[in-house]
Amino acid sequence: MPTITIPIEDLVFVLAALVGGGLLLITVLLDDILGGILESLNIDFSIGGVSLMPPLLAFIAMFGVGGIFATQVLDLHGGPAAAVGVGFGLVGFAVAYLLFRALRRAEGAKPYSIGDLVGREGSVSVTIPTGRLGTVYVRAEGQTHELSATAGEEIPSGTPIRVTGTAGMGLVVERLAAPTVAPPPATPAPEATKGDAPDA
């Protein structure tokens, strides 16, 4: 019975292509889950906002593809085959990085959260009774939003406010004090000179 022999280098290239390609597919499908796990562990494994995992896996997969191409098509072996594999891998790394970078940019910025509004200024749209709810206008992400708000005092409509905290999905605000303008210094009245005599 004839035995099938597979050169070790071909086996390495095939395994690299299969393992790298399989893990790359899993990473693409579970990107949000893996990203959330890494963020919870405070691990920053990225360049320019792009996780390095997909480009590295693309490098491994394309290294295997390049190596198989070198041994089966170009009839290269050993170091030359590995060099061709590295060249394919670098191309795969660059393509995957640019592709994922473009996808990240297309996602846009994350929407703001209520907590991001603390410290911002706005104005009251519907009067806020003491300890009860009214509404305020606050700008966020380039748009003006109308949100429910409460305060420790009654604040009439149109009054400038500052957001000091959050209460559930609403805001806690305070009246924005008007800037105090110091009065100009009083100019002293001119004194009569000693040589002046009163008119007769």
How do the strands and helices of this protein lay out in sequence?
Elements: H1 8-29, H2 31-40, E1 46-47, E2 50-51, H3 53-72, H4 79-107, E3 121-126, E4 133-140, E5 143-150, E6 160-167, E7 170-175
Helix pairs in contact: 1-3, 3-4
Give a structural overview.
This protein has 200 residues and is of the alpha+beta class. It has 2 domains: 8-107; 114-175, OB fold (Dihydrolipoamide Acetyltransferase, E2P) (Beta Barrel). Helices cover 40% and strands 20% of the residues. It contains 4 helices and 7 strands; from the N terminus they run H-H-E-E-H-H-E-E-E-E-E. It has helices spanning 8-29, 31-40, 53-72, 79-107; strands spanning 46-47, 50-51, 121-126, 133-140, 143-150, 160-167, 170-175. The chain has a 5-stranded mixed β-barrel with strand order 3-4-5-7-6. It has a two-stranded antiparallel ribbon with strand order 1-2. A hairpin with a 6-residue loop joins strand 3 and strand 4. The longest helix has 29 residues, at 79-107. The mean pLDDT is 78.
Summarize the entry for a quick read.
By secondary structure, this protein is of the alpha+beta class. The chain has helices at residues 8-29, 31-40, 53-72, 79-107, and strands at residues 46-47, 50-51, 121-126, 133-140, 143-150, 160-167, 170-175. The mean pLDDT is 78.
